[in-house]
Amino acid sequence: MHYKEEKIKGALKFKCTTRVIKPTFSYFSEDRATTNAWPDDVMQGYFAVVAIKGEESKRFIVRLEYLSDPAFLELLDQAGEEYGFRQQGALTLPCRPQELQKILDAPKQRAGNI
């Protein structure tokens, strides 16, 4: 089995797991103190990520389908190398927000060219 196939199978395994178990996390803000709550803007079939590079950061809500996108999987590999695998809350990706936006827009652009 090729490395890329293993990465895709791992992503699909994650996808299946997220459908069975609704993940929870804790967050705390000044205006709303909540623990073990799911953010209102993250619907079923989506997950939150934060793209951070230097001083730039932006939060994104991403469809689970991106877990099979090769470019997104590459960012996940980089996140694992840089931050480890025990992140809590939104997944942190080591890239500029504009770079992640390009990856998220790519399927839309391909669909428009068909």
Automatic annotation (TrEMBL):
Q: Which InterPro entries match?
A: SAUR_fam
Pfam families, from UniProt? Auxin_inducible (PF02519)
Task: Please indicate which superkingdom the organism of origin belongs to.
Answer: Eukaryota
Name the protein family. Answer: Belongs to the ARG7 family.
Could you identify this protein by its name?
Small auxin up regulated protein
Record the organism: Flemingia macrophylla
